[in-house]
Amino acid sequence: MGIRGEIELVISPDIALETCEVLERKFGFSQEKSLQAWERLLDACTMQQDRAPDVRAVPDDEDDDRIVACALFGKVDIIISGDAHLLKVKEYKSIRVMRLSEFLESELQR
């Protein structure tokens, strides 16, 4: 979807780096494979500059506020995440937070 240009993906350098670290730590990707993922992210996404989050949207994990800040600066409609703290927020300033499976299901119903 994002790769075909139907959906714009927005990410910041810090979030992309964290994504690669999670791929290595949680999903067993090698450094080489996570670097390939980094390159694909750069190709497929609109990159927002990292900014100090001036939002307090995720009370249970302030580190996740940067995800919401990136979404705000990128003017997105949806944050797709598997992070429990973000998912608990559900919505912030009309930006919905949902799991990938929920997003795909809602897109299939369109």
Word description of this protein:
- The chain is of the alpha/beta class.
- 48% of the residues lie in helices and 14% in strands.
- It has 5 helices and 5 strands, in the order βααβαβαββα.
- The protein has helices at residues 13-27, 31-44, 65-73, 84-89, 100-108; strands spanning 9-11, 45-47, 78-80, 91-92, 95-98.
- A 3-stranded mixed beta sheet has the order 3-5-4. Strands 1-2 form a two-stranded parallel sheet.
- A hairpin with a 2-residue loop joins strand 4 and strand 5 (95-98).
- Helix 1 (13-27) packs antiparallel against helix 2 (31-44).
- The longest helix has 15 residues, at 13-27.
- The two termini are 14 Å apart.
- The mean pLDDT is 87.
Helix/strand layout:
Elements: E1 9-11, H1 13-27, H2 31-44, E2 45-47, H3 65-73, E3 78-80, H4 84-89, E4 91-92, E5 95-98, H5 100-108
Parallel strand pairs: 1-2, 3-5
Antiparallel strand pairs: 4-5
Helix pairs in contact: 1-2
